[in-house]
Amino acid sequence: MEMTPIQCQQARLARDTRYDGLFFTAVKTTGIYCRSICPAPAPKEKNVEYFPTAVAAANAGYRPCLRCRPDSAPGSPAWLGKNATLNRALRLIDEGALTEQPLTHLADRLGITERYLRQLFVDEVGLSPKSYSLYQQCLLAKKLLHDTCLPVTDVAMACGFNSIRRFNDCFKQQFFLTPSQIRKQQKVTADAGKGIALSLAYRPPYNWAYLHQFFASRLIPGLEWLDEQSYGRTFQYDECVGRFTATHHEEKSSFRVEIYLTDLKYLPRVIKTIRRCLDLDADSSLIEQQLQQAMNGEELDMAGVRLPGIWSPFEAGIRAILGQQVSVKAARNLVGRFVAFNPNNANDYCYFPAPEQVSQFDLDLLGMPQRRRETLWQFSAFAVDNPLDDGKSLLALPGIGPWTVDYLRMRGLSDPDIFLVSDLGVKKALAMIPEPIDDSLAAPWRSYLTLYLWSTLS
User: Fold this and answer.
1) How many whole angstroms separate alpha carbon 109 and alpha carbon 93?
2) HTH araC/xylS-type domain spans which residues (predicted)?
3) 215, 308 in Cβ contact below 8 A?
4) What are the residue numbers of the active site?
5) How many angstroms separate the CA atoms of 420 and 279, rounded?
């Protein structure tokens, strides 16, 4: 969303929460940058400079406000849509790609040279990939220092720093403050690392009622849980297992999230995935303008539409294969049986199987056609060694068609521009509309058009 200085001025003076995270206000006289909703007295316009992202403000030499805490703002989509390779690189870096591997490894994953990757970041983001990664690590560390009781050493390790000295130096360089100056004065308990609670903000409106209904119709007991204001689930990465519960607080435009995991180094990836699954970084007002155009100008019956994500592309692919040509209820039952195969399930919690486990399962117990079972095996074997964001490679697998790939991309990768035109529910919804619609008018938000059409059936 490109905003002019006049629009930014109006939004910051109004402290409009709908613009929180879409731009940041830097004050020249104090050297501090803030969220648009900062409660501090509004500075004079002549002393203000606007930036599309927190990274851009920091790169210009400003430090974050300790009152409004820019680290807690909803994510800005400032770079989205400019370059597919850049978008994928940003996603991988946000998941910790450069804290675990060198830049050359990331470039190889993207299928480009290291030099081109550096140039891409300089041209589009204004700084190097490593500088971007370090700033994101420090932003997360700042949030953990504010919101949790984690010891500083645990915060450093969770954010990808291998030494406390390196963490302190980098943090001070980025924010002109030490971690101890950020840390709230609170007692750190011995078991602080077992549970982490923090707040994740969004830009209103947020249609929690629809998201709640969507999750409820596809809920897998033991893997997921749901109540009136909360959604939670389990997850696993390699040897790390964990779970989270996100509780909606509409009055605060945020979710209070409690996270439990056995290895803190996965925390950045977990937080990023929770934000994606709950679609906390969407700009609903902008999206709904596009949907209204596609729907022939008709006023939408649902405000604050969000794209409910699935924890991983692999899980989304399995759910899509199991959901081929069956009802939502039948697909849910099949997914529940598939999850029950996981030998790592224990007590009250179940975990979605990893790709390498599927070859050991007796899929005959699913009661599905042989070709569908073979598709599950082949897809799982492919997922062991290959990324699942290449649609052409997936389509080459037997039993994988355009609907399956699109569903995987829409919910497993949260691709915002997927229109499931071949979906039975979408076809039924389109047949109920008096005039034909032009889905191209909803681009690049056609995934939300798909959701909206589904909602008209309920």
Assistant:
1) 12
2) 87-185
3) yes
4) 34, 423
5) 19
* Residue whose C-alpha is closest to residue 224's, from 129, 299, 315: 315
pLDDT digits (tens, 9 = 90+) for 179-209: 988 885 444 443 444 579 999 999 999 999 9
For the chain, what percent of residues have pLDDT higher than 70?
A: 95
**Secondary structure in 3-state letters for 415-436:** CCCCCCCCCHHHHHHHHCCCCC
State both tokens at 211.
């998201």
Place of tokens 């203000």: 48
Instruction: State residue 193's pLDDT score.
Output: 43
- 98-132, pLDDT tens digit by residue? 987 899 999 998 889 999 999 999 888 888 999 99
- Greatest Cα pair distance, the chain, in angstroms, is 71
Instruction: Please give the structure tokens belonging to residue 403.
Output: 């609907």
Tell me which CATH homologous superfamily contains domain 195-281. DNA-3-methyladenine glycosylase AlkA, N-terminal domain (3.30.310.20)
**For residues 233 and 246, is the Cβ–Cβ distance under 8 A?**
no
- Homologous superfamily of 5-72: DNA Methylphosphotriester Repair Domain (3.40.10.10)
Peptide bond into 313 cis (omega under 30): no
State whether CATH 1.10.10.60 applies to domain 127-192.
yes
Res. 2 pLDDT band, cuts 50 70 90: low
Look at 95-99, 216-220, 239-243 and tell me which has the smallest mean pLDDT: 95-99
* 158: confidence class by pLDDT, cuts 50, 70, 90: very high
CB atoms within 10 A of CB 109: 14
Query: Which residue is associated with the tokens 């997850």?
Result: 235
Q: Where are the domains of the chain?
A: 5-72, 127-192, 195-281
385-389, long-range: CB within 8 Å, 24+ apart, which pairs?
Answer: 387/109, 388/313, 388/314, 388/317, 388/412, 388/413, 389/88, 389/313, 389/413
Cα torsion 86, 380, 98, 123 to 10°: value is -10
Tokens of 48: 């203000």
Specify the amino acid at residue 67: R
Helix (H) or strand (E) holding 259: strand 254-261
Which 3 state secondary structure label does DSSP give 345?
Answer: coil
β 32-35/63-64 pair status: parallel
Q: Give the burial string for 295-315 (b: 16+ CB within 10 Å, else e).
A: beeeeeeeebbbbbbbbbbbb
DSSP SS3 for 253: coil
Single-letter amino acid, residue 163: S
